[in-house]
Amino acid sequence: MLWLALSIFIATILLVIFKPRPFNEAGAICLGAILMFILGLVPLSNISQIFSANLNILLFFLGLMLVSYFAELSGFFNSAVNLALKLSGGSSWRLLGLVFALGIVITMFMSNDATALLLTPVVFMLVSRYGLKPLPYIFACAFVANTASFIFPFSNPVNLLAVDKFNLSLGEYTTYMLIPSILAITITIAIFYVVFRHDLRTGFSLVETKAVASDRFSHSVRLVLIFLAAACLLTSFMGWPLAIPLMLTAFILLGITSFYKKLDFNHLKHSVAWSILPFVLGLAFMVNGLENTGLTATLGNFLSNTLADGGQLEAGLITSFGTAIGSNLINNWPMMMVSVSSLSAVSDIGGANSGLIYQAILGADLGPNLLIMGSLSTMLWLILLRKRGLAIKPMEFTKLGLTITPLVLLVSTLAIFQLGKLSS
């Protein structure tokens, strides 16, 4: 049964990655989940339990997609990039730093998907207008989206898989992740400036641009986004479900958009990636099938044996690099689900060995900076740019990723290990 479940899982992930017609991501995952049910790998009695366990993540995703849509509709991203242009003073070096800073803030409070998929097209449009070489700025959007995505639990929806499973508090989370995230961001930016130093030599002359979305609607949306940032921090601190502030904010923005007569349901229907919801739920059913065959328990026992032999650092490196490599083989969502399920079988995972949880988050968040297929948002980022006339070869991304990611992952892993020793 183990090999049957594993074969279905791998075949389904390959369908997700390559998407042969007529499949899309959600369709492929749902087919795999149905096969798991038909073959008895996932009992029908598990449906309600799996659904309730993933309800917070599903509602978080729904709220996040809606909030991102209303923010984009209000011109938030255009205004933010225009501000960065003005602050740059015509310096390409300063502009790259400001794009990184903007990406960090957006990722922290609106998730990595908002940075990779909503900020990128605006940045590309503006750097093209000024005749700047686009690669430093475009790659910055993709890399910072992943590198800054473990600052807070809500900075990447993938993080919630571990946060929900192990009931991680904001205080404990930041104890382990704040310093590693600062190190990761600093190293990434430094390497960017070295790699793209020739592309950043020329400056540019600023031209007057018309203010973007400066009406009452846009101001109202931005005030609500500030409320969302504070609410997410408070919710994480209190240990409440993060879906609460996201869904509340989405309803408030829906009301504001309706009040200002900006709401177009047809546009909303086609602008939000609704298929991500059945994708996440179907994936949860498939991972449950792997759990039922004992695969994830076997992986957890392997880590427990490594820890028992005194190899806490070795276990941490296996977890972070294993999750990172796995994210590039089967995508970071299914890999993180497998990692979380495996870690739940590790002895004392909520105590002395809790650092492994953060190593897994690190691997799932940073891993997609290695290959385009590491996360769905990065694959969509590539497609989005191609539609706008910028053909980025996957090997260009991989070459930069291999220059940055192994070093960043190693330094961050060691930092989490040291922080774990200090807190124990």
From TrEMBL:
Where is this protein primarily located?
Answer: membrane
TM segment ranges? 25-45, 57-77, 97-127, 134-155, 175-196, 217-236, 242-260, 272-290, 366-385, 397-419
An MF annotation (GO) of this entry: arsenite transmembrane transporter activity
- Localisation: Cell membrane
The family annotation for this protein states: Belongs to the ArsB family.
A Pfam family that the UniProt record links to this protein = ArsB
Report whether Transmembrane shows up as a keyword of the record: yes
Organism source for this protein? Dehalococcoides mccartyi (strain CBDB1)
Q: Which GO terms describe its cellular component?
A: plasma membrane
UniProt record, GO biological process: response to arsenic-containing substance
InterPro entries given for it?
A: Arsenical_pump_ArsB (IPR000802)
Q: Has UniProt tagged this entry with the keyword Coiled coil?
A: no
Q: What name has this protein been given in UniProt? A: Arsenical pump membrane protein
Q: Which gene encodes it?
A: arsB
Give the membrane topology, semicolon-separated if more than one: Multi-pass membrane protein
- Keywords from the UniProt entry: Arsenical resistance, Cell membrane, Membrane, Transmembrane, Transmembrane helix
